[in-house]
Amino acid sequence: MNVVDSVIREKLHSHVALIRQVSEYIINSGGKRLRPALVILSAGAFGYTGKYHYNLAAVIEFIHTATLLHDDVVDESELRRNKETANALFGNAASVLVGDFLYSRAFQMMVEVDNMRVMQVLADATNTIAEGEVLQMLNCRDPDVEEDNYLRVIRFKTAKLFEAASRLGAILGNAAEEEERALAIYGMHLGTAFQLIDDMLDYSGDYQETGKNLGDDLAEGKPTLPLIYAMRAGTPAQISIIRKAIEEGGQDELQSVLQVIQQTNALDYARQCAQAEADTASAAIASLPDSDYKTSLLQLATFAITRNH
To answer: For residue 192, what pLDDT is reported?
Structure first.
């Protein structure tokens, strides 16, 4: 991962000072580096000994960072990882354009690998992520979004990059088709579990640990799983509270919504769903040969659902 960070710093170079400034700000502002770690670990699980996994891990992080820059503009977010978002600090225009720079730099780097399969996986992933962003936008302020539609957004917007990261390592390691598919399944379900916990923490996390304000999703009118389940399990009065909160956005109803979530055990349900996703991820790679890399991949599935940040 230290090598990956070195590649990231090297590839962030631009003769345009503002691009360097914004890129370095967002890249260096924290983050778990889970997605690039997946590339390294999955490549190691198949005995890869080259150096392209470092570049592809950086590519994955650049794509992820570009989505964050664009996300925060769309969501009008002002806080991420306990720091001001890039758009709050540098403005929306700079955030969008630097996000574009990171996308294009990522594609320059993936071309260097000279592997059409790698290109296909990353091109498909970035396209799917963009579709997920639009689907999420369409779901905002809509209290009638069902669980299947909500999960579809997660699979597209978040889990697809986890899937791509896991698959890339398998491709570099010349894994068999069935093994590559197993890593893709692992990544997809790991990413889904990760996002389910993220959505839970929006109603239960601590600001100092999550780096986000409680109720940010509610302020944007996002119908996430805790709200969807609470409306399914709640009384007519409770359903009315949540519908109103989603339709109007903002945080005026936050305390009332938190009470309904607690009364309907919505967070317990969301955690059970996240656990099921993590279990599916772990089962997908159970047949891989034992190694420190496999052990770490399994530990990531546990971390995804036990974390508080």
So the answer is: 98
